[in-house]
Q: What sequence folds into this?
């Protein structure tokens, strides 16, 4: 008996190679993609575009793996948080955010995270393992199934859930190819955003990736001294190196970079910090997303609205594009590892 492979692990090009290897025709990869991603089928028997023999043969080699939905919480603003169980019983979470421009999904890429950012709830749960490509794809597929009854589909994907996507680079890139494929979920590359804490060599690789996907950089601090105090990744990759990598990305893709900046009371929210921030990013085609901190532990506090407005005004006055991120799903702990962290603590 061969061990069956999860069909959701394969981009169309990789599936074509697998099909050739088992004596099937290459073009079946397109038929399979259309069936599973356009028509939401999840059993070879039901894929009637394939011959009966092919269906039988394919079922010997491939399986439709799935995630078990353990919990769905819907917020007053429509944000919906899914808690999924993987085959090995690990839990992950995925958030759906309905917007006026479409339905956006925030996917998780790892079980836990090893980056150790001090302010982040996800970082308190150490990485257990990377998610497979299929496990990331299935998050989107499951939410598409959920949306189907309302005649909606996932239109945007942000890779900003638990985990560091560039610490699981290959699987995340395969995931992007699959959801972007015109014969599959067909989510436009401009509707896909990857967020990283700044793993420099991977930013270069990402810039060379053939699809023009958006990049968000979790900056949060405008100088090395403070950044490395709260984000260990900065000990390895300093801001100067990071900025060079981002310039390379911009020159290759012409895509505007988003800097994420969580405002933490009395830590990075002074006007001096704003001044350093302006100096750091000036000349780059970017915008700054000011993020209200979600208080997940007792140490860090959120910046007051007055201070936030001063900070914001300073950036704007100095010619920097900035926005304050709207908060979603506050009433259901929809931000950053909270649901999973809570479930794990509660089940201890
Ligand atoms: N590892 C990636 C993606 C996951 S974190 C990254 O660092 O970008 C997604 C975003 O949420 C990051 O910008 C992260 O810094 C931010 N974040 C983490 N904890 C938060 C909190 N408690 N409140 C608000 N944003 C938070």
A:
């Amino acid at each position: 008996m061969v061990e069956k492979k999860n069909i959701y692990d394969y981009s169309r090009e990789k599936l074509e190679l697998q099909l050739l290897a088992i004596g099937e025709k290459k073009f079946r990869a397109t038929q399979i993609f259309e069936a599973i991603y356009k028509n939401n089928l999840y059993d070879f028997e039901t894929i009637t575009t394939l011959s009966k023999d092919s269906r039988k043969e394919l079922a010997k080699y491939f399986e439709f793996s799935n995630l078990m939905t353990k919990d769905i919480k819907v917020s007053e603003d429509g944000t919906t948080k899914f808690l999924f169980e993987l085959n090995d019983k690990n839990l992950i979470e995925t958030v759906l955010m309905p917007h006026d421009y479409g339905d956006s999904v925030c996917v998780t890429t790892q079980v836990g995270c090893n980056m150790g950012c001090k302010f982040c709830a996800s970082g308190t749960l150490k990485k257990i393992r990377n998610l497979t490509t299929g496990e990331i794809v299935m998050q989107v597929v499951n939410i598409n199934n959920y949306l189907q009854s309302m005649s909606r589909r996932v239109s945007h994907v942000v890779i900003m859930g638990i985990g560091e996507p560039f610490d699981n680079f290959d699987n995340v890139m395969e995931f992007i190819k699959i959801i972007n494929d015109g014969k599959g979920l067909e989510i436009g590359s401009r509707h896909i955003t990857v967020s990283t804490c700044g793993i420099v060599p991977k930013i270069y690789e990402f810039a060379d990736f053939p699809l023009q996907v958006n990049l968000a950089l979790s900056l949060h601090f405008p100088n090395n001294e403070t950044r490395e105090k709260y984000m260990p990744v900065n000990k390895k990759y300093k801001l100067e190196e990071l900025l060079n990598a981002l310039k390379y990305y911009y020159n290759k893709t012409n895509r505007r970079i988003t800097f994420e900046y969580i405002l933490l009371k009395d830590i990075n929210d002074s006007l001096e910090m704003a001044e350093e921030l302006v100096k750091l990013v000036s000349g780059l085609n970017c915008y700054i997303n000011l993020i209200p901190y979600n208080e997940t532990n007792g140490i860090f506090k959120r910046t007051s609205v007055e201070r936030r407005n001063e900070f914001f005004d300073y950036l704007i006055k100095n010619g920097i594009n900035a926005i304050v991120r709207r908060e979603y799903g506050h009433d259901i702990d929809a931000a950053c590892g909270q649901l999973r962290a809570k479930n794990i603590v509660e089940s201890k």
